Amino acid sequence: MSGFPGMQIEPVLVTQLISAVLALAVAFGAPITEDQRNAVLAVTAACVAIFFGGGLVARANSYSERQAAEIAAVAYTAGKEELHG
Question: Which domain holds residue 16?
Answer without folding.
Answer: 11-84
